[in-house]
Amino acid sequence: MLLAEVAATSDAVSATRSRLAKRAAIADLLRRAATGEPTETDQATTIEIVVAYIAGALRQRRTGLGWASLRDLPPPATEPTLTVRDVDAAFAEMAALEGPGSAQARSAAATGLFGAATEREQAFLRGLVAGELRQGALDSVVVDAVAEAAGVPADAVRRAVMMRGATGPVASAALLADDPLAALAEFTLEVGRPVRPMLAQSAPDIGAAFEKLGSPDAPTELCVDVKLDGIRIQAHRLGDDIRVVTRSLDDITERVPEIVEVVRALPSDRLVLDGEALAIGQDGVPRPFQETAARSATREATPEAELASQLQLSPFFFDVLHAGGRDLVDAPLRERLAVLDEVAAPHTVRRLVTSDPDAAAEFFAGALREGQEGVVVKSLDTPYAAGRRGAGWVKVKPRQTLDLVVLAVERGSGRRQGWLSNIHLGARDPDGGFVMLGKTFKGMTDEMLEWQTERFRELQVEDNGWVVTVRPEQVVEIAFDGLQRSTRYPGGLALRFARVLRYRDDKSAAEADTIETVRTLAGF
DNA sequence: TTCCGACAGTGGGGTCGCAAT
DNA sequence: ATTGCGACCCCACTATCGGAA
Q1: Which residues make Cβ contacts (< 8 Å) with residue A208, sequence separation at least 6?
Q2: Order of all β-strands in the sheet with A351-354
Q3: Which of A105, A222, A326, A452, by CA, is between 20 and 30 Å from A54?
Q4: Radius of gyration (Cα) for chain A, nearest Å?
Q5: Quick one: which of A151, A149, A179, A174 has its CA closest to A161?
Q6: Per residue in A269-289, pLDDT tens?
Q7: Does nucleic acid strand C have an atom less than 7 angstroms from the CB of A19?
Q8: DSSP A78-109
Q9: Residue at shortest CA–C1' distance from C9
Q10: Residue ranges of chain A with pLDDT lower than 50?
């Protein structure tokens, strides 16, 4: 199959806002991809590549190519000749390059590939490399399209994808099998093969979380887990063979020997566990997320690094998908927790099971006093809905706010093209001026974007084509999750997950919060 | 007919590893 | 040694479509 056909489908997908029409266009592409290659193997490969590309991704996890390396492209070809397998082979080659001179070799390979692409194909490839296709369809829509093309229920495909941890192999199986449903049914949980993790929704407070999960009439018993501020881990154990992966199913086994040891010492030798890993201080208090992130991102535990850091990650498990030969994905949480306590104690997350929102609120407050991030409220009746932001789990975190001053605005892109979008935030310095603490584009409605575009044009003092600097007069109320150390900003600290609550026209910049207030909040 | 669940989009800060400078 | 880029860890929020109620 030609790359041009995939690009043409991408155009059709972009051109409509209807998800059903997007799905139909992709299903049609997949049907065509499922025929026309010489061998069954080529056929399967082609489907896998097309599934990746039309979902806006390359098959290679890392190519070393990024936005910056595509600034200067060779002149485009006039006729489309590239097949999707040519393109995949080219990226595979680039991904395999390493060592001195690799950047040049990669650049040469990219020039070769892009030089063989037409103008339209170049744009499509650039979108794939940068992960910015913006056609209104990602993996979920493609999964639905696979179902349509194979003539099977979407749930059957979705479930197979969650078990396989990837869409490509599931799509080729469904599209090439004589009996697609039977082929999909063969994708079952396999110990050692990562599964897409179940995600949580969020709620502003415990009461809202209970409302989402409980029955409106009678009190409902719910599980309240402490939410830890670390990295998500999924641990697989098959005898002495242990594997640890992250939320995106990246294998980090080599980086976390201490977690491997914990799992190895558990009483069951066939396990799939879901949990969180983080660094805990000598005092038992969780270390800041930045330290956990640094520890888990360090690839080789060199002896010096080991000595220097002394920082160990501790795993805390909150779910179990398989134990001792028994699959638990479809079992209700209540049952899974009973098994979890048998196989993972004491390395489990602390929890409370209650139907009383007040008791849950007290538990939440206690978790915060311990230095934890918050809680996750869970229905005890739901199965493990992998890979979807299912309604079964709801997280609750505290929210802090500050009144800050807008120092500059950046032009928006994509659907925010034409609007001033991303605002720079400053705290007042009592000695004069403002100290920048970060930026945010979150929490803005279209109406606010419209308003702020006009407002900041009024306050404009400079426009360099990307950033519009403004007179520091507009106060904005910002919500955020916490403060972290920063080397980027002059105050040495930055806001974590800042978002706009509202613009405050009742306050002048002279009444905005000061950098001292922020420092006191941060405690450093 | 209205409501709401699921999805895509729009980017945020920090960290490491790696190649080039 | 420093710098710039790529990849990936954490993520919040709004707009929209289309099926459920």
Answers
A1: A396
A2: A201-203, A393-396, A374-379, A222-227, A351-354
A3: A105
A4: 26
A5: A174
A6: 999 999 999 999 989 999 999
A7: yes
A8: SS---BHHHHHHHHHHHHH--STTHHHHHHHH
A9: A293
A10: 307-308
